[in-house]
Design goal:
Among the domains are: about 10-140, Sandwich (Immunoglobulin-like), CATH 2.60.40; about 140-255, Beta Complex (Ferric Hydroxamate Uptake Protein, Chain A, domain 1). The chain has about 800 residues and is mainly beta.
Length: about 800
């Protein structure tokens, strides 16, 4: 059963009733059965006891995500979660545990286990001589992890990767992982396993972000100084995630330093940033405030003023973007934690010339109020109130005429999740969420100052989206299984839908060094991004599912294996995936969605599928770390009304994709890094010829009296040249008495490769000045970024 529709009764009541009938009786029955069933596990588990607690940075109090607690004698360990919490079942005995984390001194403690205990551990930073460098989770931890198709990234790792203009960007770092591609030269968009940018669910502290980019896609909105961790799910999403077909990017921000007030910042070529954080209310609360702004506009305004009044001078548009982040964390009791997080960011473009003026701005707002409550060492809940808004606005004025256009989406939501560990082997998460969407679609107003002409058009649409979900993790010996079910519902324009989304993941371990994994994921997407181009732009429109535009449905099958080689020195993974996508949306050739109150009349619907394999080799330990990733992939789309019904590759189909990342720490002061990327050129549509139509009454065109029409027979039948680039970076750490500081040098595109950005045609004539008979048309390549050196000064005190 994929979805149900109702026409003869009140839609909102019918959706809620069917949603409850479909899910909750079964849900309650399953939970009741499990509560009885696990008593058997409890009876068997009385000879073991639980040791739990939190692993934190001794200097700042920040949780250490991925830190480990390990018993050498029992050869047993666990990894801390996103809040730094760990929990391990131990026998009634005297047990030594080693607590460790990347770049920190390990802590060894002996526990006499005779009952359930709690132990919070603080880890202190180590010097280069005191610890072997290790990057992220250990290879053995990743082998044992049931979740496959998951990429994890820390702000510290992202900082070491060379960046264009020295601007650290976590999205560009994610593009270096296998299965993840960019939309083109310099873009920060993510195209994951054949999916489009609108099929990624991007979250910042649980709040969705609908356009996670600045500068028309060249930079992401995330300030690296405030980021704590990033998780990218390329497939096998846990049941608490939904609403998108392709991937989930879950960004968590830091809580702030609970020990002392610190100031962190940086000054770069195009932007500066500053973050202030510290304790409040004694040790019960922390705050963090961060900001970032570019200063393109400062230079362009000076250039425009210097050339003002010159006859042949064309003014340069003013452009800048800025981000503001704020977070307040309060711990009223040992069992409660409340966080208020907010993001505000904008891009602003202004262009003036004589009597013509254009103002174009777009941006995101995202906020969440999150409450975590621990009922016991086994049971906790996380409840979030969520707000999100994305909007763009264009304001034009020419002489006595003005034109304004705005569009966007605004959300209000609530989400709650219950986590319960029946035993160390059986764990449950279950919950529900609800979101109210408000769409503003193509709201346009225009008119003359004298009132002789006016225009007012556009749509406002409301929609409701809800879901209930449950998932179980079960471990038995060398087997680990995760099963889940998500039931989603959507209501808009008197039409309702219900989707069943099962999830399943299975892992078989062959000792500590090898495991085989497989998973299946089914997802529904009720929101659609309507675009006129192959890349996501600020003017693209979000549009809800309705009677004609039914929800997208995706299925992904993945399998693979992971290995810890040379006693954990290297981590290797190889995954294979196959994805199907139904009800994909495009617009009819030659159509435009601007000033159109019946958008669904220009939509065409089809299907898509993608398949491929990914290889990943990572060095985890030592002074030299890094990874090599390779992806072989095929992506297809097929529409009855496009390309004569024949299948074709979308623009971002890339046959081969290679990334090589190396980081070497010479000593405590100097770290050198380099990246090299290679990718098959983007698929593009090019004319195979030109058709000349004689216009007997025409006097315009070239040549005069003729109309020239490109003859494009197949969509995306051509390829641009292959893309490849080498970047180098160097971080030099100072050791000031007042805190920390460094200079980060980077060189983007070291060997000055002129990579293709787009293809255009020039007309060739008999005479070099352009006069005379047409001899033909010559395709030429436009490139964007040559070699670009940059330097950034970072500080913390």
């Amino acid at each position: 059963m994929q979805f149900l529709s109702y026409k003869n009764i009140t839609p909102s009541i019918s959706l809620a009733l069917d949603f409850m009938k479909l899910f909750f009786p079964k849900h309650i029955f399953i939970l009741g059965f499990l509560l009885v069933f696990v008593q058997l596990f409890d009876a068997r588990a009385q000879t073991t006891f639980k040791l739990s607690g939190k692993l934190t940075d001794a200097a700042s109090g920040e949780p250490l995500i991925g830190a480990s607690a390990y018993s050498p004698r029992l050869k047993k360990g666990v990894v801390a979660d996103v809040d730094g919490k760990y929990s391990i079942q131990l026998p009634a005995d005297t047990v030594q545990l080693v607590f460790s984390y990347v770049g920190y001194l390990p802590v060894r403690k002996v526990f006499k286990i005779s009952k359930n205990q709690k132990a919070d551990i603080e880890l202190g930073l180590a010097t280069q001589e005191e610890v072997v460098i290790e990057s992220g989770k250990s290879a053995k931890d990743k082998v044992a992890l049931n979740q496959m198709s998951l990429e994890e990234l820390s702000a510290k790792e992202a900082k070491l990767i060379p960046a264009i203009f020295g601007e650290v960007d976590i999205f560009k770092t994610l593009q270096l992982k296998p299965g993840v591609q960019s939309g083109g030269e310099g873009f920060s968009g993510l195209y994951v396993r054949g999916g489009g940018p609108d099929q990624n669910l991007v979250l910042i502290d649980d709040a969705p972000v609908y356009n996670p980019s600045h500068l028309f896609g060249f930079f992401s909105i995330f300030n690296n100084d405030i980021v704590r961790s990033v998780e990218l799910y390329k497939g096998g999403f846990p049941s608490n995630y939904g609403g998108r077909l392709s991937s989930v990017v879950d960004v968590k921000t830091r809580d702030g330093n609970n020990q002392k007030t610190t100031v962190t910042g940086g000054i770069g070529l195009i932007s500066s940033r500053l973050t202030v954080e510290g304790p409040m209310l004694g040790d019960k609360a922390t705050y963090m405030l961060g900001g970032r702004r570019t200063y393109f506009d400062i230079f362009t305004r000076q250039i425009n003023r210097a050339n003002e009044g010159k006859i042949n001078y064309n003014p340069i548009p003013d452009y800048y973007f800025y981000d503001l982040n704020g977070k307040f964390t309060y711990r009223p009791t040992l069992k409660d934690k409340v966080t208020l997080s907010y993001y505000y960011g904008n891009d602003v473009v202004t262009f003036k010339r004589r009597n013509f003026k254009v103002n174009f701005d777009w941006g995101n707002r995202a906020g969440s109020l999150r409450w975590v409550h621990d009922y016991s060492p086994r049971t906790s809940t996380v409840t979030s109130l969520i707000y999100s808004k994305y909007a763009y606005r264009i304001r034009n004025s020419v002489d006595n005429f003005s034109f304004n256009l705005t569009s966007g989406i605004e959300d209000y939501g609530v989400k709650t999740i219950l986590y319960h560990n029946f035993t160390e082997k059986l764990k449950l998460h279950t919950g529900a969420d609800f979101t109210q969407h408000q769409f503003t679609i193509g709201r346009a107003t225009a008119g003359s100052n004298d009132g002789s002409f006016s225009l007012n058009t556009g749509q406002n649409i409301q929609a409701s989206e809800m879901s209930a979900f449950s998932g179980l993790d079960y471990t038995s010996g060398e087997w680990q299984m995760n099963g889940g079910l998500r039931v989603s519902g959507f209501l808009a324009s008197n039409r309702s839908f219900i989707g069943l989304e099962p999830r399943l993941a299975v892992t078989k371990k062959f000792g500590e060094h090898l495991s085989a994994k497989l998973n299946y994921t089914r997802t529904f997407q009720y929101l659609n991004l309507i675009t006129n181009s192959g890349a996501a732009l600020p003017t693209d429109l979000w549009y809800p599912s309705n009677a004609r535009t039914q929800p997208q449905v995706g299925n992904q099958y993945a399998t693979g294996w992971t290995a810890a080689l040379f006693d954990g020195e290297l981590f290797f993974s190889n995954e294979y995936y196959y994805r199907t996508m139904r009800r994909q949306i495009d617009i009819k050739d030659g159509s435009s969605f601007f000033l159109n109150n019946q958008l669904d009349t220009i939509f065409v619907f089809g299907k898509g599928w993608a398949y491929g394999t990914e290889f990943y080799l990572e060095k985890k330990k030592g002074k030299t770390t890094g990874w090599i990733g390779y992806t072989l992939s095929y992506t297809w789309r097929q529409f009855d009304n496009i390309n004569f019904g024949e299948k074709f590759h979308p623009r971002y189909d890339r046959r081969h994709d290679i990334s090589v990342v190396i980081m070497h720490q010479f000593n405590r002061r100097i770290t050198l890094s380099g990246t090299w990327v290679y990718g098959t050129g983007n698929a593009i549509s090019l004319p195979e010829g030109r058709l000349f139509f004689q216009d007997l009454n025409g006097t315009v065109g070239f040549p005069p009296g003729y109309k020239v029409v490109p003859d494009i027979r197949q969509r995306n039948a051509f390829r641009m040249a292959a893309y490849h680039r080498l970047d180098l970076g160097l971080v030099y750490n100072f050791k000031p008495k007042w805190g920390e500081s460094d200079l980060t040098f980077s060189i983007y595109n070291v060997y000055n490769r002129l990579n293709p950005f787009f293809i255009y045609f020039e007309t060739m004539t008999e005479n070099q000045d352009g006069s005379g008979n047409i001899l033909g048309f010559q395709a030429k390549q436009a490139s964007l970024f040559p070699i670009i050196p940059s330097v950034t000064y970072n500080f913390k005190f």
